[in-house]
C-alpha cells in the first residue's frame, strides 16, 4: 500500500469506528460512510467527481472550490455551487483572477512541507482578512463561514474550501462547522490523491462537475463558437444550448462567459493561459 493510500485508509477507519459523536459533533451514519467508501474506491477515476460532490453535500457544504497553487498563480481544480447562481456568486473566477493574492492561506499553503495537511476555519482567519475580501467571498454570496483544508502532496500545494450557507434552510442535516478535523483532513487528502492519480482529461478540470451536454456547450464557448454553431455541432436546438449554459453556470457558480474562461484558465482566443 502506498503512502497516500495508507493515510486514507487509516483516516477512514478512524472515522468509521465513530458510531456516536461527542456533544456538538456530527455522528456518522451508514449513508455518509457509504458515500465515503465510494469516494475512496473511485480515486483517480472519472466517477470520483460525482461521488466526492455527493459526499461533501452530505457533510453540509453549500459551495465547494479547490485550487492548486504555484508561485504567483491559482488554478481552479473544482468549483461546485449547490445553491442558486445569485447566492453562489462568482467566487472561483474572482479568486483565480487575482483575489488569491489577498488570501493568507495562499502563502501558508505555498510554505507547507510535503505531506502536511492543515484545517483552517474562517473564524481563526478573520484577523488576517481584508474587509473587502470578507464582503466579496462571504457577505455578498450569503455564506456564514467556511472551512479550508490545505494539502501539500508531492509537488502540489492545494486548498479545498467548503462553504456553509447563512440560511439554515439551505444546510444539510449535518452541520459543516461541527465536523471533526480528522474528517476534513480525510476529505482534503482524498481530493489531492485523486488529482495526483487522475489522467488529465481532454477538457479543463473545473468542467468535470457538469453533465456531458453542459460540458459540450462550455467547450464550444471556450472554442469561440456562438450558440447556433454549438447547437449544430452537438445536435440540439439553440434554445437547449441556452438551457445547458445556464445549468453549467449555476453549477460552477459563475454568471458570464468571461468567468468561464477565467476558471478554465483559457484566454479569449481559445489558448491556454500561461
Automatic annotation (TrEMBL):
The keyword DNA-binding is annotated on this UniProt entry: yes
InterPro entries given in the database record: Sig_transdc_resp-reg_C-effctor, Tscrpt_reg_LuxR_C, WH-like_DNA-bd_sf
MF term (GO), any: DNA binding
Ranges where the HTH luxR-type domain occurs: 224-251
Lineage top rank: taxon: Bacteria
Keywords associated with the record: DNA-binding, Transcription, Transcription regulation
GO terms, biological process: regulation of DNA-templated transcription
Membrane-spanning intervals of the chain: none
Stored Pfam families: GerE (PF00196)
Name of the protein in its database record: LuxR family transcriptional regulator
Source taxonomy: Bacteria, Pseudomonadati, Pseudomonadota, Alphaproteobacteria, Sphingomonadales
